[in-house]
Amino acid sequence: MGKRKKRKKPSQEKKSAPEEASLQAKPEERKRKKKLPALKNREHPNWPLTALAGAGMVLTAYLVLTTWLGGKPLYCAEGSSCDIVQQSRWGTFLGLPTALWGFLTYAALAHIGYRVRSAVRHWKWAWTVSLAGLGYSVYLIAVSLFVIDAACVYCLASFSIMTAIFCVVLFQRPAGLPDFSFAKWAGQTAVVALVLVGGMHLHYSGVFDPAAGPEDPYLKGLAEHLAREKALMYGAFW
Questions:
Q1: Distance between CA 94 and CA 192 in Å, rounded?
Q2: Which of the two residues, 83 and 17, has the higher pLDDT score?
Q3: Which of 198, 206, 224 is nearest to 89 (CA)?
Q4: What is the pTM assigned to this prediction?
Q5: How many CB atoms lie within 10 A of CB 105?
Q6: Which domains does the chain have, with CATH numbers?
Q7: How far is CA 106 from the centre of its chain?
């Protein structure tokens, strides 16, 4: 007589059922992963981003050149709201014109828009730089309106350009980024932007550099008095 096949116990049959289900589920998961669109490198420059960044470069370069050449920008006559903002302590940062830092920001965005072709790096870099630039622009606009009590047409123009750039980058967010959570990424980069703007505010408050902080009312009044009296100071050295 032939050997009888051993019959599996019910417990073994119950254990094998989930294993079979998992084996059947794996091919389905693989199919779903294959259906995700693969992110390809950009074939052409990001013209909307590049064009807007180029406009920002032209605007800020004009302000920097007129400042270094000792002139006044158009519609920014002496004593005007624009001039008051430009001559305030917020008109410079680390000894350089604020417009120069804006020019470098726009130049970075133009480089990303024209040269960076990796879809992931392109969007993440553009998002980070534009968010930081927008945060700084909002800070300067708030200072000019609520602290200086004046408005600068060039600051408003730069703010509009940076806002448009940020909206373009937000709209262009690629779908199917691997292992990417937009909410988490937005929160992390927002913290970085807040730290950057907060550090600049501390600088302008005189925490890091007292010379960059608010003016001493006594010294300011004394300087105005001497200017009205046309006082002159003579000195000699050997």
A1: 20
A2: 83
A3: 206
A4: 0.74
A5: 24
A6: 47-212 (1.20.1440.130)
A7: 10
